[in-house]
Protein backbone atom coordinates (compact mmCIF):
# COMPACT_ATOMS: atom_id res chain seq x y z
CA UNK A 1 0.00 0.00 0.00
CA UNK A 2 2.81 2.40 0.93
CA UNK A 3 4.53 1.60 -2.36
CA UNK A 4 1.40 2.49 -4.34
CA UNK A 5 1.04 5.76 -2.43
CA UNK A 6 4.68 6.63 -3.16
CA UNK A 7 4.22 5.91 -6.88
CA UNK A 8 1.05 8.01 -7.07
CA UNK A 9 2.75 10.85 -5.19
CA UNK A 10 5.67 10.74 -7.62
CA UNK A 11 3.33 10.79 -10.63
CA UNK A 12 1.37 13.74 -9.24
CA UNK A 13 4.57 15.70 -8.59
CA UNK A 14 5.91 14.82 -12.07
CA UNK A 15 2.68 15.85 -13.79
CA UNK A 16 2.58 19.11 -11.85
CA UNK A 17 6.15 19.86 -12.86
CA UNK A 18 5.37 19.12 -16.50
CA UNK A 19 2.16 21.13 -16.51
CA UNK A 20 3.96 24.11 -15.01
CA UNK A 21 6.38 24.34 -17.92
CA UNK A 22 6.20 26.83 -20.76
CA UNK A 23 7.06 24.91 -23.91
CA UNK A 24 7.11 28.00 -26.13
CA UNK A 25 8.04 31.26 -24.33
CA UNK A 26 6.74 34.21 -26.34
CA UNK A 27 8.27 37.64 -25.86
CA UNK A 28 9.37 40.25 -28.37
CA UNK A 29 13.11 39.80 -28.83
CA UNK A 30 13.20 36.05 -28.31
CA UNK A 31 15.14 34.44 -31.15
CA UNK A 32 16.35 31.08 -32.43
CA UNK A 33 19.34 30.20 -34.62
CA UNK A 34 18.32 27.23 -36.72
CA UNK A 35 20.39 24.81 -38.76
CA UNK A 36 18.51 23.06 -41.56
CA UNK A 37 19.96 19.90 -43.14
CA UNK A 38 18.06 18.99 -46.31
CA UNK A 39 18.10 16.68 -49.31
CA UNK A 40 15.96 15.88 -52.31
CA UNK A 41 15.87 13.17 -54.93
CA UNK A 42 14.32 13.24 -58.37
CA UNK A 43 13.99 11.19 -61.51
CA UNK A 44 16.74 8.70 -62.19
CA UNK A 45 18.29 9.15 -58.77
CA UNK A 46 19.30 12.75 -59.36
CA UNK A 47 19.35 14.88 -56.25
CA UNK A 48 21.11 17.31 -54.03
CA UNK A 49 21.74 17.97 -50.34
CA UNK A 50 22.92 20.89 -48.26
CA UNK A 51 22.71 22.89 -45.06
CA UNK A 52 21.07 26.28 -44.44
CA UNK A 53 21.23 28.53 -41.40
CA UNK A 54 18.46 30.96 -40.59
CA UNK A 55 16.84 32.81 -37.70
CA UNK A 56 13.35 32.65 -36.20
CA UNK A 57 12.40 35.69 -34.10
CA UNK A 58 9.46 37.00 -32.10
CA UNK A 59 9.15 40.45 -33.64
CA UNK A 60 5.84 41.95 -32.47
CA UNK A 61 2.87 41.61 -30.13
CA UNK A 62 -0.72 42.68 -30.49
CA UNK A 63 -3.91 42.48 -28.40
CA UNK A 64 -6.83 40.61 -29.98
CA UNK A 65 -10.09 40.22 -28.05
CA UNK A 66 -8.29 41.13 -24.85
CA UNK A 67 -5.55 38.51 -25.32
CA UNK A 68 -1.90 39.11 -26.20
CA UNK A 69 -0.70 37.44 -29.40
CA UNK A 70 2.78 37.40 -30.91
CA UNK A 71 4.08 37.44 -34.46
CA UNK A 72 7.16 35.46 -35.57
CA UNK A 73 9.44 36.21 -38.49
CA UNK A 74 11.96 34.02 -40.26
CA UNK A 75 14.50 34.92 -42.95
CA UNK A 76 14.06 31.44 -44.47
CA UNK A 77 11.79 30.64 -47.40
CA UNK A 78 10.20 27.61 -45.73
CA UNK A 79 10.05 28.21 -41.94
CA UNK A 80 8.48 25.82 -39.40
CA UNK A 81 5.37 28.04 -39.23
CA UNK A 82 3.63 29.64 -42.15
CA UNK A 83 4.02 33.42 -42.61
CA UNK A 84 1.57 35.88 -41.11
CA UNK A 85 0.31 33.70 -38.26
CA UNK A 86 -0.10 34.99 -34.69
CA UNK A 87 0.49 32.86 -31.58
CA UNK A 88 -0.14 32.89 -27.86
CA UNK A 89 0.68 30.45 -25.08
CA UNK A 90 -2.18 29.46 -22.77
CA UNK A 91 -0.28 28.72 -19.56
CA UNK A 92 -3.41 27.48 -17.75
CA UNK A 93 -4.34 24.85 -20.32
CA UNK A 94 -0.77 24.32 -21.56
CA UNK A 95 -1.79 24.99 -25.12
CA UNK A 96 -0.17 26.82 -28.03
CA UNK A 97 -2.89 28.86 -29.79
CA UNK A 98 -2.78 30.22 -33.33
CA UNK A 99 -4.67 32.79 -35.39
CA UNK A 100 -3.88 31.93 -38.99
CA UNK A 101 -3.30 34.47 -41.71
CA UNK A 102 -6.49 33.26 -43.42
CA UNK A 103 -9.05 34.24 -40.73
CA UNK A 104 -9.37 35.64 -37.20
CA UNK A 105 -10.50 32.45 -35.43
CA UNK A 106 -8.34 31.08 -32.64
CA UNK A 107 -7.29 27.48 -33.24
CA UNK A 108 -5.14 24.87 -31.56
CA UNK A 109 -1.52 24.61 -32.64
CA UNK A 110 -0.18 22.30 -29.90
CA UNK A 111 -1.72 20.63 -26.87
CA UNK A 112 1.18 20.02 -24.51
CA UNK A 113 -1.06 18.21 -22.03
CA UNK A 114 -2.18 15.65 -24.62
CA UNK A 115 -1.40 12.17 -23.23
CA UNK A 116 1.07 10.00 -25.14
CA UNK A 117 -0.44 8.34 -28.24
CA UNK A 118 -3.52 10.58 -28.20
CA UNK A 119 -4.60 12.50 -31.31
CA UNK A 120 -5.46 16.15 -31.87
CA UNK A 121 -5.99 18.43 -34.86
CA UNK A 122 -3.29 21.08 -35.14
CA UNK A 123 -3.27 24.26 -37.22
CA UNK A 124 0.42 24.89 -36.56
CA UNK A 125 1.12 25.18 -40.30
CA UNK A 126 -2.10 27.13 -40.94
CA UNK A 127 -4.03 24.10 -42.19
CA UNK A 128 -5.61 21.28 -40.15
CA UNK A 129 -3.31 18.27 -39.66
CA UNK A 130 -3.95 15.22 -37.49
CA UNK A 131 -1.05 14.90 -35.02
CA UNK A 132 -0.28 12.27 -32.42
CA UNK A 133 1.19 13.29 -29.08
CA UNK A 134 4.34 11.46 -27.99
CA UNK A 135 4.16 13.06 -24.57
CA UNK A 136 6.87 14.56 -22.39
CA UNK A 137 10.30 13.07 -21.72
CA UNK A 138 13.71 14.19 -20.50
CA UNK A 139 16.33 14.74 -23.21
CA UNK A 140 19.61 16.55 -23.72
CA UNK A 141 18.93 19.87 -25.44
CA UNK A 142 21.73 22.34 -26.20
CA UNK A 143 23.98 20.60 -23.69
CA UNK A 144 21.50 20.44 -20.77
CA UNK A 145 18.76 18.04 -19.68
CA UNK A 146 15.34 19.48 -20.48
CA UNK A 147 11.72 18.33 -20.48
CA UNK A 148 10.81 17.81 -24.12
CA UNK A 149 7.43 17.46 -25.83
CA UNK A 150 7.18 15.67 -29.22
CA UNK A 151 4.27 15.52 -31.68
CA UNK A 152 4.21 13.64 -35.00
CA UNK A 153 2.08 13.86 -38.13
CA UNK A 154 -0.29 10.87 -38.29
CA UNK A 155 -0.18 10.62 -42.08
CA UNK A 156 3.54 11.34 -42.38
CA UNK A 157 5.24 10.25 -39.12
CA UNK A 158 8.56 11.68 -40.30
CA UNK A 159 6.99 15.15 -39.98
CA UNK A 160 7.29 16.27 -36.36
CA UNK A 161 7.73 19.18 -33.95
CA UNK A 162 9.82 19.04 -30.76
CA UNK A 163 9.61 21.67 -28.02
CA UNK A 164 11.79 22.07 -24.91
CA UNK A 165 10.51 23.56 -21.66
CA UNK A 166 11.45 27.23 -21.15
CA UNK A 167 13.16 27.27 -24.58
CA UNK A 168 10.57 26.56 -27.25
CA UNK A 169 11.00 25.00 -30.68
CA UNK A 170 14.17 22.87 -30.79
CA UNK A 171 13.46 20.65 -33.79
CA UNK A 172 11.17 20.56 -36.83
CA UNK A 173 11.27 17.69 -39.32
CA UNK A 174 9.58 17.78 -42.69
CA UNK A 175 9.37 15.02 -45.28
CA UNK A 176 7.29 14.91 -48.42
CA UNK A 177 7.13 12.31 -51.17
CA UNK A 178 5.91 13.44 -54.57
CA UNK A 179 4.18 11.70 -57.45
CA UNK A 180 5.46 9.90 -59.45
CA UNK A 181 7.26 7.67 -56.89
CA UNK A 182 10.93 8.41 -56.39
CA UNK A 183 10.56 12.15 -55.86
CA UNK A 184 11.07 13.24 -52.24
CA UNK A 185 12.23 16.15 -50.11
CA UNK A 186 13.42 16.01 -46.51
CA UNK A 187 14.52 18.74 -44.09
CA UNK A 188 15.57 18.64 -40.45
CA UNK A 189 15.56 22.00 -38.66
CA UNK A 190 17.49 22.01 -35.37
CA UNK A 191 17.76 25.03 -33.07
CA UNK A 192 21.48 25.37 -32.33
CA UNK A 193 21.19 28.43 -30.07
CA UNK A 194 18.54 30.77 -28.70
CA UNK A 195 17.93 33.98 -26.80
CA UNK A 196 14.92 33.55 -24.49
CA UNK A 197 13.98 36.43 -22.19
CA UNK A 198 17.57 37.75 -22.48
CA UNK A 199 18.98 34.34 -21.43
CA UNK A 200 21.37 32.77 -23.93
CA UNK A 201 21.16 29.06 -24.67
CA UNK A 202 24.20 27.45 -26.30
CA UNK A 203 26.02 30.64 -27.41
CA UNK A 204 27.83 30.64 -30.75
CA UNK A 205 31.58 31.22 -30.43
CA UNK A 206 33.38 33.52 -32.85
CA UNK A 207 36.98 34.48 -32.07
CA UNK A 208 40.19 35.42 -33.87
CA UNK A 209 43.02 33.82 -31.87
CA UNK A 210 46.27 34.90 -33.55
CA UNK A 211 47.93 36.25 -36.67
CA UNK A 212 50.96 34.10 -37.48
CA UNK A 213 53.69 35.02 -38.05
CA UNK A 214 53.55 38.72 -37.20
CA UNK A 215 57.00 39.73 -36.01
CA UNK A 216 59.87 41.95 -37.07
CA UNK A 217 61.22 40.65 -40.38
CA UNK A 218 63.68 41.62 -43.15
CA UNK A 219 62.29 43.63 -46.06
CA UNK A 220 63.32 40.97 -48.59
CA UNK A 221 61.12 38.36 -46.89
CA UNK A 222 58.03 40.22 -48.12
CA UNK A 223 55.59 39.16 -49.48
CA UNK A 224 54.98 36.32 -47.07
CA UNK A 225 52.12 34.03 -46.08
CA UNK A 226 50.06 35.25 -43.12
CA UNK A 227 47.88 32.74 -41.30
CA UNK A 228 44.80 33.85 -39.35
CA UNK A 229 44.00 31.36 -36.61
CA UNK A 230 40.38 31.61 -35.52
CA UNK A 231 37.60 29.68 -33.77
CA UNK A 232 33.94 29.55 -34.85
CA UNK A 233 31.13 27.24 -33.76
CA UNK A 234 29.59 27.40 -37.24
CA UNK A 235 32.02 28.81 -39.79
CA UNK A 236 29.27 28.96 -42.42
CA UNK A 237 27.67 31.84 -40.50
CA UNK A 238 30.73 34.08 -41.03
CA UNK A 239 29.77 36.93 -43.37
CA UNK A 240 32.86 39.17 -43.24
CA UNK A 241 36.46 38.27 -42.45
CA UNK A 242 39.25 40.69 -43.28
CA UNK A 243 42.65 42.12 -42.35
CA UNK A 244 43.22 45.90 -42.15
CA UNK A 245 46.81 46.98 -42.78
CA UNK A 246 48.60 50.29 -42.29
CA UNK A 247 52.06 50.95 -43.73
CA UNK A 248 53.97 53.73 -41.95
CA UNK A 249 57.32 55.44 -42.52
CA UNK A 250 58.64 57.72 -39.78
CA UNK A 251 55.10 57.97 -38.35
CA UNK A 252 53.72 59.01 -41.75
CA UNK A 253 50.96 56.83 -43.20
CA UNK A 254 52.15 55.61 -46.60
CA UNK A 255 49.27 53.33 -47.55
CA UNK A 256 46.36 51.29 -46.19
CA UNK A 257 45.15 47.96 -47.49
CA UNK A 258 42.18 45.69 -46.92
CA UNK A 259 42.55 41.93 -47.38
CA UNK A 260 39.47 39.71 -47.46
CA UNK A 261 40.01 36.30 -45.84
CA UNK A 262 38.27 33.07 -46.83
CA UNK A 263 36.93 31.28 -43.74
CA UNK A 264 37.63 27.90 -45.38
CA UNK A 265 41.25 28.91 -46.21
CA UNK A 266 42.36 31.56 -43.68
CA UNK A 267 45.70 32.42 -45.29
CA UNK A 268 46.75 35.39 -47.38
CA UNK A 269 49.89 36.70 -49.01
CA UNK A 270 50.83 39.96 -47.32
CA UNK A 271 52.24 42.27 -50.00
CA UNK A 272 52.97 45.99 -49.68
CA UNK A 273 54.52 47.83 -52.61
CA UNK A 274 57.38 50.21 -51.90
CA UNK A 275 58.21 48.68 -48.53
CA UNK A 276 61.58 49.82 -47.12
CA UNK A 277 63.77 48.93 -44.18
CA UNK A 278 62.81 50.83 -40.99
CA UNK A 279 59.15 51.02 -42.08
CA UNK A 280 56.42 49.77 -39.76
CA UNK A 281 53.46 47.58 -40.64
CA UNK A 282 50.34 47.49 -38.44
CA UNK A 283 47.63 44.85 -38.75
CA UNK A 284 44.21 44.15 -37.31
CA UNK A 285 41.84 41.26 -38.06
CA UNK A 286 38.04 41.55 -37.96
CA UNK A 287 35.41 38.84 -38.29
CA UNK A 288 31.60 39.08 -38.09
CA UNK A 289 28.76 36.61 -38.47
CA UNK A 290 25.06 36.53 -39.37
CA UNK A 291 23.95 34.74 -36.22
CA UNK A 292 21.15 36.00 -33.97
CA UNK A 293 23.90 37.38 -31.71
CA UNK A 294 25.50 39.47 -34.52
CA UNK A 295 28.94 38.44 -33.23
CA UNK A 296 31.92 40.67 -33.96
CA UNK A 297 35.50 39.97 -32.94
CA UNK A 298 38.81 41.76 -33.48
CA UNK A 299 42.42 40.76 -33.06
CA UNK A 300 43.84 42.41 -31.16
CA UNK A 301 40.74 43.44 -29.17
CA UNK A 302 41.93 47.06 -29.12
CA UNK A 303 44.58 48.82 -31.15
CA UNK A 304 46.85 47.12 -33.67
CA UNK A 305 49.59 44.52 -33.75
CA UNK A 306 52.79 46.02 -35.20
CA UNK A 307 55.90 44.68 -36.90
CA UNK A 308 59.10 46.49 -37.82
CA UNK A 309 60.66 46.08 -41.27
CA UNK A 310 64.34 45.11 -40.93
CA UNK A 311 67.22 45.49 -43.39
CA UNK A 312 67.59 42.75 -46.03
CA UNK A 313 68.94 39.36 -44.98
CA UNK A 314 72.00 39.85 -47.20
CA UNK A 315 73.10 42.82 -45.09
CA UNK A 316 72.70 40.93 -41.80
CA UNK A 317 76.03 40.00 -40.25
CA UNK A 318 77.28 36.59 -41.20
CA UNK A 319 76.20 33.75 -38.98
CA UNK A 320 73.02 35.38 -37.62
CA UNK A 321 70.23 32.80 -37.43
CA UNK A 322 66.71 33.19 -38.82
CA UNK A 323 64.06 34.56 -36.47
CA UNK A 324 61.13 32.52 -37.76
CA UNK A 325 60.04 29.57 -39.89
CA UNK A 326 59.54 30.41 -43.54
CA UNK A 327 58.72 28.55 -46.75
CA UNK A 328 59.31 30.79 -49.76
CA UNK A 329 57.55 30.65 -53.12
CA UNK A 330 59.43 28.48 -55.57
CA UNK A 331 61.40 30.27 -58.32
CA UNK A 332 60.85 30.33 -61.19
CA UNK A 333 57.11 29.78 -61.11
CA UNK A 334 55.74 28.62 -63.55
CA UNK A 335 58.79 26.41 -64.21
CA UNK A 336 60.06 23.88 -66.77
CA UNK A 337 61.33 21.48 -65.64
CA UNK A 338 63.40 22.61 -62.60
CA UNK A 339 62.51 25.05 -59.86
CA UNK A 340 64.19 26.06 -56.60
CA UNK A 341 62.52 26.05 -53.18
CA UNK A 342 63.95 28.10 -50.31
CA UNK A 343 63.11 27.73 -46.63
CA UNK A 344 64.47 28.68 -43.22
CA UNK A 345 64.12 27.35 -39.68
CA UNK A 346 65.03 29.23 -36.45
CA UNK A 347 65.95 26.09 -34.47
CA UNK A 348 67.09 22.49 -35.07
CA UNK A 349 64.21 20.36 -36.32
CA UNK A 350 63.24 17.35 -38.41
CA UNK A 351 62.45 18.91 -41.78
CA UNK A 352 60.23 17.12 -44.30
CA UNK A 353 59.38 18.59 -47.69
CA UNK A 354 57.03 16.68 -49.98
CA UNK A 355 55.44 17.36 -53.37
CA UNK A 356 51.80 16.45 -54.13
CA UNK A 357 49.51 16.56 -57.15
CA UNK A 358 46.12 18.29 -57.13
CA UNK A 359 44.43 15.09 -55.88
CA UNK A 360 46.69 14.97 -52.82
CA UNK A 361 48.80 12.08 -54.07
CA UNK A 362 52.41 12.23 -52.92
CA UNK A 363 54.79 12.71 -55.85
CA UNK A 364 58.18 12.99 -54.20
CA UNK A 365 59.91 13.57 -50.85
CA UNK A 366 62.56 16.27 -51.36
CA UNK A 367 64.01 16.09 -47.86
CA UNK A 368 63.36 14.25 -44.62
CA UNK A 369 66.20 14.83 -42.15
CA UNK A 370 67.27 16.69 -39.04
CA UNK A 371 68.49 20.20 -39.92
CA UNK A 372 70.27 22.87 -37.94
CA UNK A 373 68.82 26.37 -37.68
CA UNK A 374 69.50 28.31 -40.88
CA UNK A 375 68.39 29.09 -44.43
CA UNK A 376 68.32 26.37 -47.10
CA UNK A 377 67.32 25.75 -50.70
CA UNK A 378 66.53 22.65 -52.67
CA UNK A 379 65.74 21.97 -56.33
CA UNK A 380 62.75 20.06 -57.65
CA UNK A 381 62.91 18.40 -61.07
CA UNK A 382 59.53 17.89 -62.78
CA UNK A 383 60.93 16.25 -65.94
CA UNK A 384 58.85 13.13 -65.45
CA UNK A 385 55.59 14.96 -64.77
CA UNK A 386 52.88 16.42 -66.97
CA UNK A 387 52.02 20.12 -67.02
CA UNK A 388 49.72 21.22 -64.23
CA UNK A 389 49.39 22.46 -60.66
CA UNK A 390 51.40 20.84 -57.87
CA UNK A 391 51.82 21.57 -54.19
CA UNK A 392 54.86 21.43 -51.93
CA UNK A 393 54.59 21.20 -48.16
CA UNK A 394 57.12 21.65 -45.38
CA UNK A 395 56.79 20.20 -41.89
CA UNK A 396 59.37 21.29 -39.29
CA UNK A 397 58.62 20.82 -35.59
CA UNK A 398 55.16 22.30 -35.03
CA UNK A 399 55.39 24.39 -38.20
CA UNK A 400 53.79 23.34 -41.48
CA UNK A 401 52.99 25.28 -44.62
CA UNK A 402 51.88 24.50 -48.18
CA UNK A 403 52.41 26.44 -51.39
CA UNK A 404 51.29 25.98 -54.98
CA UNK A 405 53.57 25.74 -58.02
CA UNK A 406 52.85 25.39 -61.72
CA UNK A 407 54.72 23.11 -64.12
CA UNK A 408 54.33 24.44 -67.67
CA UNK A 409 55.94 22.47 -70.48
Assign a percent range to the helix content.
under 10%
* Global structural class: mainly beta
Q: Percent of residues in beta strands? A: over 45%
Spell out the helices and strands N to C.
Answer: HEEEEEEEEEEEEEEEEEEEEEEEEEEEEE
In whole angstroms, the N-to-C terminal distance is: 93 Å
Backbone CA Rg: 30 Å
- Report the uncertain regions: 5-19
Question: Care to count the β-strands?
Answer: 29
Mean pLDDT value? 90
The main sheet comes to:
13 strands, antiparallel
Shape, principal axes of CA atoms: elongated
Number of helices: 1
Provide the number of structural domains: 3
Summarize the structure.
The chain has 409 residues and is mostly beta strands.
Please characterize this protein's 3D structure.
- With 409 residues, the chain is mainly beta.
- It folds into 3 domains: 18-201; 206-315, Sandwich (Immunoglobulin-like); 326-407, Macroglobulin (MG2) domain (Immunoglobulin-like, Sandwich), CATH 2.60.40.1930.
- The protein contains 1 helix and 29 strands.
- A hairpin with a 2-residue loop joins strand 28 (388-396) and strand 29.
- The longest helix is centred in the first third of the chain and has 18 residues, at 2-19.
- The chain is elongated.
- The model is unreliable at 5-19 (pLDDT under 50).
Task: Write a concise keyword list for the protein shown above.
single chain, 409 residues, mainly beta, Immunoglobulin-like, six-stranded mixed sheet, 1 helix, 29 strands
